[in-house]
Specification:
about 270 residues, mainly alpha, Serine Threonine Protein Phosphatase 5, Tetratricopeptide repeat, 2 domains, two-stranded antiparallel sheet, 12 helices, 6 strands, globular, Regulator of sirC expression, contains transglutaminase-like and TPR domains
Length: about 270
């Protein structure tokens, strides 16, 4: 099977193999990535984390687990501009630096192996974690507890004072949503490196995961435009137009479609 097929096979397991799926994403970009070998090494990391945890009930171990990760060198990647390695899981495991979502995926895998209850939260701009039933969230970059006021401050620090915290921001993320968000992150990071082929690989995965938004089709259309693929660009612009509720965006998409050459058919 190809790395993409193995990725979906991981996602369709019960429960889904999140970390392995993320490693197969990395294998799409770097052929030398060996997910099986990396998962064996991960068992050693899990043992190191386990040895340093306090004697508490599993429901109280999520925050100590995240703090233990910090003790072992895991931290948010603060290199600017961010590079794809901040979201490629084999690199994050190697350097112990990554985006919040990448660190969260590692924490979730560790928690699963140690039977510690922990779920992901699709918070805008900074992925978070939660112990089911808890009255707070956890920052995967160190384990800080975040209560509603903290979440509001985090949101407004990233999106401005007019951004309001809503219940939608605090929903548990499904495995599909986490891997789709990871793919979107990688799409953007590869784009900032002008690696349009790598970004296209990620853009395709975003849409294969389903429930693609207008912005996802528009992002892939822009990549096809850079790669001089007008037929593929037209296909995605038409889908973005169907999905868009913004009248200004719809007008711009219609204008852009009008400037494309007629759809050619090869016989």
């Amino acid at each position: 099977m190809s790395p993409r097929q193995r990725f979906f096979e991981c996602l369709h397991r019960s429960p889904p193999a999140l970390l392995e799926a993320a490693l197969w994403i990395a294998a799409e970009h770097e052929k030398e990535v060996d997910p099986a070998a990396l998962l064996l090494d991960f068992k050693e990391l899990q043992q190191k984390v386990s040895y340093g945890l306090p004697m508490l009930s599993v429901s109280e171990l999520a925050q100590p687990l995240l703090r233990r990760m910090i003790e072992l060198g895991f931290a948010q990647d603060d290199f600017l501009p961010l590079r794809p390695q901040a979201a490629l899981l084999h690199k994050v495991l190697q350097t112990r630096r990554g985006q919040p979502l990448a660190l969260a995926l590692i924490a979730l895998e560790l928690a699963h192996g140690l039977e510690i209850p922990l779920v992901g939260v699709n918070f805008p701009g900074h992925f978070l974690l939660r112990v089911p039933g808890a009255d707070h969230l956890l920052d995967p970059c160190g384990g800080r507890r975040l209560y509603p006021n903290d979440c509001r401050e985090l949101l407004q620090r990233q999106y401005g004072p007019n951004m309001k915290l809503s219940a939608e921001h605090l929903l548990t993320a499904s495995p599909q949503q986490m891997l789709q968000r990871l793919s979107r992150n990688l799409r953007q990071l590869h784009l900032t490196q002008d690696d349009f082929i790598a970004a296209l690989i990620d853009a395709e995965r975003v849409l294969e995961l389903g429930n693609g938004a207008a912005a996802d089709y528009l992002a892939r259309a822009s990549l096809y435009q850079r790669l001089d693929c007008p037929n593929a660009e037209r296909f995605d612009l038409e889908h973005a137009l169907l999905l868009s509720d913004d009248p200004i965006q719809r007008l711009r998409l219609t204008e852009r479609l009008g400037h494309l050459p007629p759809n050619s058919v090869v016989h």
